[in-house]
Fold:
Amino acid sequence: MNDLRERLVLYAVTDRAWLAAARATLDGQVEEAVRGGATMVQLREKGMDDAAYAALARRVKAVTDVFGVPLIVNDSLEAAITSDAAGLHVGQADGDVREIRVRLGPGKILGVSTQTVAQARAAEADGADYLGVGAVFPTATKPDAAEIPLSELAAICAAVRIPVVAIGGIHAGNALLLRGCGLAGICVVSALFARPGQVCESARELRALAEAVTRPA
Structure:
């Protein structure tokens, strides 16, 4: 995808944890996020088998397709392939990146989570299209995630040619601290989906901040 860097500016990562309180559906919240300015969506839902995950991905993809926003599936290669999602995102423990790249195919987007320069260079060499680096701030979404110093984040951005996005505890109050790191975008979870009735408004605010973060100095 030639415009991948532009697609990564505001990367929304789903979490069904807040749906009941919001009396909302996941596809409805995703629609609000992309209406507000999310440029890419990752479906990250744990505890589902591949068939159910693929079915959910198809429902969400029906929304993102309307807005021309790529849908990325987290972890499950089978669900990504079956749902014809735009791509897949995997972590360091989710398999061999080179093998996943081959199975996913050259026309799909592959993202890989990294925390060090060495991991970043390896992922790029193995065929990753972009990197997710975090957690850059403390996060309740993944409370056991190690926090990455911003100096390491900047070093990773400088070490690879592919775009890098930051994830972990990012919200409107701290996003601008990431300016100058060389990022292509920011990933947000609770800053969007934990705000019932305000997802679209939150996305609009975060999009403006993301553009400021990614603007060249």
Q: What stands out?
A: The first helix runs from residue 4 to 7. The first strand starts at residue 10 and ends at 13. The beta strands are 10-13, 40-43, 71-74, 87-90, 109-114, 130-133, 164-166, 185-188.
